[in-house]
Amino acid sequence: MPKLDYTKYKLKNKEELLNIIGDNARIYIVSCNKCFSELKSTCEPETAELNKLLNEAGKTTAGFMPLDFLCNEHLSEKALNSVKQDILKADAVAVISCGIGIQTVAGLLALPVLGMCDSVFQGGYHGISLNTEKCGACGDCYLTATGGICPVVDCSKGLINGPCGGAKNSKCEVSKDKDCAWESIYNRLKSQNRQDVFISEAPKIRNYNKNNADFMDSNVKRIQAKRNEGFYGGLYPEERKELTEKLVITKIADPEIVSIPLQQHAGAVCEALVKAGERVSLGQKIGASKAFVSAYIHSSVSGEVLAVEPRKHPLLPFPVLNVIIKNDKKDEIAPSVASKGSLSSCTGEAIVQAIKDAGVVGMGGAQFPTHIKLSSAKVLDTVLINGCECEPLLNADNRLMIERPEQVLTGLRLIMKAAGISKGIIALEDNKIEAFESLKSKLAGDACIEVISVRTKYPEGAERMLIKRVLNREVPRGGLPLDVGVIVNNISTVVAVYEAVYNGLPLVRRVVTVAGAGVEKPGNYEIKIGMQVADIARACGIKVPDNFELKMGGAIMGFVQDTLDVPVIKGTNGIIVVRKKDELTAEPCIKCGRCVNVCPMELKPHKLVLFAQAENWEMVEKEGVMNCIECGCCEDICSSKSHMVEIFKSSKKALKERKK
Fold this sequence. Notes:
By secondary structure, this protein is of the alpha/beta class. The chain has 21 helices and 23 strands. The strands form 6 sheets. The chain has a 6-stranded mixed sheet. The protein has a 4-stranded parallel sheet with strand order 3-2-4-5, with helices on both faces. A 4-stranded antiparallel sheet has the order 8-14-13-10, with no helix packed on it.
């Protein structure tokens, strides 16, 4: 069965084009790659066709800017600004696009914008735009003559010959909350000194039964406001927090044996400090590295070391050296586990040392050593604590904020003192009302710390997104939060900092949410590092149903486990059972634009897939695959069911291999 043709525009005929271009000598071409058509190239043939016509007419092409989804105003504005100097050298900008794209460009540039195309109605709403611009696909576009403002859809009466004269105070007499379209057209043309522009021939009688663009207007405005709130992109997945959000933190019986990986952090793997047959105490250092980026590993139990051997890792695709310890259930504490002081008694340097000695890392998943963040030489002004926990099902951080607010706030103050920063912010999503009230009640008028509630949106907990949402600062591509003066930590990490200083306890336990289908005893459990998932499954009655899978981490970004013989590590915030995704079929991309709309890193996932499949690694890198945070938004919403995240992971690996 042939694919339906959803082409949205066609180039005007040669005579019309030359008439529109008129006396303009230097033309900059902005073109839109057609949406809802199979992705085969990154530039449509109309661009070359128009360029040839301009050359034959003795005109100069000042430059080209082919874009995907020109109607995406947020990304198009950034792209056009990047070539603004070249555009300003032109007399006019020729736009190859449907009416929505032409309107978008006209709203972004002060130059005359020339519409080179007529929009074509192919059924359904015209375009994918989340902007306020609309297109009725009337098939005879006059946007050039009206300054890029469409009278067909912006005038309540749809007048295309000029104003009716009924406007009062610039508002339409039909829709009193609506600006008069023709007055807006006049003001736009006046600002460009183009009052003499007019439609050269009588407009064709329009068939109003073709398409009514207004029927989507209210929905578009609602989606637009939601989509761009706080940060660009993102999703609103089903949260299912109710499964465990009211369940207090409890403990699971200690395991008989723990298997503790010597890599539970970003950076160099640790070397074992113990060997088989030796006795260890709870909190004893059993792994260390001399590398700058690394974190110490400690025993979570007391007992005998049975072996030091490679074992399967829950996150990494290769075996990692583990220290296997038989638990004697005595919990004999190592002599090194002792209070390092308090907020008032410790210097900043002493706090950093305590954090380093305790092996504290980011416990939201990234596992970056915390002491390194606090030792930056950059100028910093804010400690931002991520209390969003935006992944579905997870409630570990939520329960810590509810049950241990003093530890959270004191841990934050310790981090602020260690980094020499006087401003701290804890940001929670607005689905955590109890946690918000718990923290606020313990602040006691501390003007240096602010607890704020933000609208729920995934992946809000990602550092770049949270910084944009809370502080309106953009971390540059390839950069770090430190580059914009911010240190970001998550709630579990802050509590671990408190434990490291006040109790001298290394990171040997953490709170983990256990939830999902087939879990008889869901809950938020304090679990010792190194406990096997198989032991947790027995304690919680986990039975993975058919067509479901067990993940460690969140429902979206978590890692699927093909065995339960893997341990809890420092970054394990969840053990959950979720339905398997629909089988990915990897159909050809149809350029629906949904992946571009939801990518919080403002990448073009569809292009990354195209270039990766062609093994065009130069373009893969240029399009920014290394900035992908693997949040899965694109894959979740992809119309073609593409294996996007796996493709991007493989692409990153290929690029790293090429640079060796």
